[in-house]
Design a protein that fits this description.
Elements: H1 6-25, H2 29-51, H3 64-83, H4 98-108, H5 112-115, H6 122-133, H7 135-148, H8 152-175, H9 181-187, H10 202-213, H11 225-241, H12 243-262, H13 268-289
Helix pairs in contact: 1-2, 1-3, 1-8, 3-8, 6-10, 6-12, 7-8, 7-11, 8-11, 8-13, 11-12, 11-13
């Protein structure tokens, strides 16, 4: 079994970037100390996994192999929450790129993030929210499939592409802060606050609870990391199962892209840039793993 260390370098690179941007953000002292301590401990773990991978594939402790393979993925899922600490490294809290993006959307796309949901019935909203909700399962499910079938090199290539997209996205949140249409359209006077949350059913309530009341950052819309992972998911489904898996994956990925705009979580431009990032991530992974 061939084990690659490329994916384990990504958390180290990201933690270095995160630390530098957090130091630039001028956070309160206690919070800064806590962040730097956690970052240092995580860097120590991933450096150890790079320098001593054989430790995880012996009889060290139960689940050591699983920890080695899955820890980069788990790290980047968790790191989204941590990325909020560096959002203001370069810009004031009042600054965002939403106004020029809104103007761009109006000129080239006719502002679909504003009017799509207005034309949709509750069941359409529910369907779009369902597709958006699939993000929380498809990467994990695909990883489980590859791991279960002992396709470890493919598993690592897939997780590298996913993690590489996260690294770039989270870093650019600080450089190109954008709140996304669900917030910025109201601030621009284009959307009434009463229209901010959409009328749907169970999936709508669950997704909106996450996107409004939980971990979603006001400033982390550009680029869309979700759209990047959808490209990776689509590519690997097609590689594994051909058109029989590729067509359903295309429906899921396409629905996720549409759902991102329909739900006003992302602009069309966010989705396009995110999809291009997904393609770039696959190209980098292809170069390193094949």
């Amino acid at each position: 079994m061939h084990i690659s260390l490329w994916v384990h370098w990504l958390p180290i690179v990201y933690l270095t970037i995160h630390t530098l941007l957090v130091l630039k953000s001028r956070l309160p002292y206690r919070l800064l100390v806590r962040i730097l301590t956690v970052n240092l401990l995580l860097v120590a773990y991933f450096l150890f996994s790079v320098l001593r991978p054989e430790f995880f594939f012996g009889e060290s402790f139960p689940g050591s192999k699983i920890l080695f393979l899955w820890s980069p993925v788990i790290f980047f899922w968790w790191a989204y929450m941590w990325s909020g600490h560096m959002l203001r490294a370069f810009h004031l809290p009042t600054f965002s790129y939403d106004p020029p993006i809104i103007a761009f959307e109006e000129k080239w796309f006719g502002q679909p993030s504003l009017w799509w949901a207005r034309k949709g019935a509750p069941w359409v909203t529910e369907l779009m929210q369902f597709f958006y909700f699939t993000y929380f399962f498809y990467t994990f499910g695909l990883g489980l499939y590859l791991h279960y079938h002992q396709r470890i090199e493919d598993f690592q290539a897939m997780t590298f592409a996913t993690a590489f997209g996260y690294l770039i996205s989270y870093t650019f949140f600080a450089i190109t802060p954008a709140k996304g249409p669900r917030w910025a359209l109201i601030e621009a006077g284009l959307l009434s606050p009463s229209e901010q949350r959409q009328k749907g059913y169970a999936f709508t309530r669950v997704v909106e609870a996450i996107m409004y009341d939980d971990v979603a950052h006001k400033g982390g819309a550009m680029p869309s990391a979700h759209s990047a992972t959808a490209v990776v998911f689509l590519f690997w489904c097609w590689c594994i199962w051909g058109w029989e898996g590729g067509i359903p994956a295309l429906i899921i990925a396409g629905g996720r892209w549409l759902g991102a705009v329909y739900g006003r979580y992302h602009y069309v431009l966010d989705v396009i840039v995110g999809a291009l990032l997904g393609i770039a991530s696959l190209l980098v992974a292809g170069f390193l793993f094949h």
